[in-house]
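Much of what follows relies on a compact textual record of a protein's fold. Each token is a code from a learned vocabulary of local backbone shapes. The record below shows the convention in full.
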Amino acid sequence: MKQKLQRGDPPEQVAQTEHLLDVWTGLFFGIGVIWTAIGMRGALLQALGDPTSSAQLGAFVILQRLVDGGILLALSTTIFGGIGGYLMRLIKALSVGGELRRFYLQHHAQQSDSILLVLQRIEQQLESMGNKDQTDHVPKLLEHRAH
């Protein structure tokens, strides 16, 4: 990403790379959540496997079965996924955040300038047609532009 910004790659390529970085970050979060769900399911199946015997067991025995079934490991995958995902976001923000923001602002400014030029040409063309009464309501576009 940093190389693309430094080289001045086209906005489409920069945006695609940023999108892919965000997808990978989302996948990191998602994998943590999915593994948590899988682990929780396994722990619950082990703890509550037989409904008739589970009803007769005490809460402590069921809790012990949950721990033995891997519920703590399952919950730790959520923590790992969360920490990893937020670290990925932090690294992106610290390494290219400012450059990326400047890149997009510059790109939007260039687009705005080109639109204003086109509108100015249209305005000039309307004025040159000699229909002053039709152009009286057309604002002077560049006069209203704030720098």
Summary: The mean pLDDT is 87.
